[in-house]
Design a protein that fits this description.
The protein has about 525 residues and is of the alpha/beta class. The chain contains 15 helices and 21 strands. About 35% of the residues lie in helices and about 20% in strands.
Length: about 525
């Protein structure tokens, strides 16, 4: 500061500098005006990003807090190999547990044990463009392998047990999903990648969130059809034809079995398959917009129990997004090959084994390759290499029995096994000599070895018998084909393929089994 500057009083100095300051302030104001719109846009974008991230985080936090998982310690110690199928297998169990508010919807005591009311195995093909759901009737006679009890001990293998009894092992309110998963893996030879249990409440809320689901009834139904113990017919609850249902009404629709067709569980399964098809149509037509995502996901998780592989919102949403490209027409529903055995259901072999082999090879019901990989057109895909294939039986002991009246058949089969390195512990005649199909019987924990044996006997059926050995009971099919039997393709029986429902089929078609359908 100069002497002359010091001589000027401060108030005069400010007055003297004001023209320069005014010009500088004007330039800065103009710059601010020019930057104003850009700064506003950036601030808005930042706010949207922050709020959006916070909102997404809140959604994930809310969903994570609603997901229940079951203890994986109860899964079998002898599971199928993780690479046994290129696609994914998801077991879906509908539970009739009465706990957590479910008794108000399904009736019964809230202290009752959990039971599986319905179940299907969903196979998502490796190309993620096809899927098939295989329903397993609750009264199907199956082998229930060892399952873990609440006290930490394990049960013994049970043969000819009802399928839905597996879920009740341990007699707990929420059931035993791990035991049902063990049973399905034992039945199919396929590794179950994920298991989902949905209860009454979750199902009812899901149907309400989507705004109802279209269903079709083949005839009028009354209260007595829903509850056969009623003394009177009661009020009309469903009119014949198409209608939209949600909540309790939707639950009544999928649970009703009396008064339609033969009143069987098979007929109810047909209507359940039609319902799931209609639900998929609804969700796809509405689209998963942000406004629909949270209530749909919330309804799906709040009354759902899953395995640890789907235990977070991120895992659930990732899995759901992996299904988005599956077309409705390529989503099929079938019931495991079956026939009545008294009041129960018996699995039909070798049809069921052919179905599992097709899924394992990622072949669709009509025999198409859905593995997502290109294969040479000249290379046939087979269920097994046949007797002349490259099969090694090193370290596997087998006993062979002749299940026919053809002399020497057990010895012939034994020679084939020995040629491939199996140790034949003995031969003889089976107690029954009327076997049409070759059966591979196996003890606890020996299914994978039994599958290796089955590769030498195309079209054979696998059967768990408990114990600790493997038996081959050769049938008439082997007697006819002999050692030159050609390998069979991984295609399901034509009757099963023709009876399949597609998710885009007519809503009112094939709704019951037996008379009145």
């Amino acid at each position: 500061m100069t002497t002359s500057d010091q001589a000027i009083p401060s108030r005069h100095r400010r007055r003297a500098e004001s023209p320069r300051r005014g010009r500088a302030q004007g330039r800065r104001a103009a710059q601010r005006r020019r930057r104003g719109p850009l700064r506003t846009v950036l601030l808005v974008a930042l706010a949207v990003a922050v709020l959006g991230t916070a909102g997404l985080g809140w959604i994930y936090l809310k969903l994570n807090g609603s997901i229940d998982t079951f203890n994986g310690d109860g899964l079998s110690r002898n599971r199928p190999d993780a690479g046994s199928s290129k696609g994914e297998n998801v077991l879906v169990i509908g539970s009739d547990a009465r706990s957590d508010g479910n008794s108000a919807l399904g009736g019964g005591s809230k202290d009752d044990i959990g039971r599986s009311d319905t179940a299907f195995l969903l196979h998502v093909y490796a190309d993620h463009k096809h899927a098939v759901a295989v329903s397993i009737p609750r009264d199907t006679l199956v082998t229930v392998p060892p399952c873990k009890l609440p006290d930490g001990s394990w049960t013994e293998t049970r043969t000819n047990a009802l399928f839905n009894s597996a879920f009740s092992v341990g007699q707990t309110k929420k059931g035993n999903p791990a035991c049902t998963q063990n049973t399905v893996e034992e039945l199919t030879g396929l590794r179950v990648d994920h298991t989902v249990v949905v209860d009454f409440k979750g199902f009812a809320e899901l149907t309400a969130v989507v705004g109802g689901v279209k269903v079709c009834l083949p005839q009028d139904l009354y209260q007595k059809d829903l509850n056969p113990k009623r003394a009177t017919k009661g009020e009309l609850i469903f009119e014949k034809g198409e209608q939209t249902v949600s909540g309790q009404k939707a639950l009544d629709y999928v649970r009703i079995r009396h008064g339609i067709g033969d009143g069987s569980d098979i007929g109810r399964i047909k209507r359940q398959q039609a319902f799931v098809s209609s639900l998929l149509k609804k969700i796809k037509s509405d689209g998963l917009t942000p406004t629909r995502l949270l209530p749909l996901a919330t309804a799906a998780t709040e009354s759902m129990t899953v395995d640890s592989g789907l235990s977070t919102a991120n895992k659930l949403i990732s899995f759901a997004m992996s299904l988005k490209d599956i077309d409705l027409h390529n989503t099929k529903f079938v019931t495991i090959p079956w026939h009545y055995e008294g009041a129960n259901i018996a699995v039909v072999e070798p049809d069921a084994s052919d179905l599992w082999a097709a899924l394992k090879a990622d072949r669709t019901l009509d025999g198409k390759d859905a593995s997502g990989k290109k294969r040479p057109a000249t290379a046939p895909v087979t269920a097994s290499p046949g007797p002349g294939g490259n099969v090694s039986g090193d370290g596997i002991d087998v006993a062979v029995y002749n299940g026919t009246t053809t002399i020497g058949l057990a010895s012939q089969a034994a020679a084939t096994l020995t040629d491939h390195g199996f140790t034949v512990t003995g031969t003889g005649n089976a107690s029954s000599r009327q076997h049409t199909t070759t059966v591979i019987q196996y003890g606890t924990g020996l299914r994978s070895r039994a599958e290796t044996v089955a590769e030498l006997f195309p079209g054979s059926a696998l059967k768990a018998i408990g114990g600790s050995g493997i038996n081959v009971v050769v049938g008439a099919s082997y007697a006819t084909a002999g050692s030159s039997a050609p390998a069979t393709p991984t295609a399901v029986p034509s009757s099963l393929a023709s009876d399949a429902r597609s998710a885009d089929d007519d809503l009112c078609s094939d709704l019951s089994y037996g008379s009145g359908g």
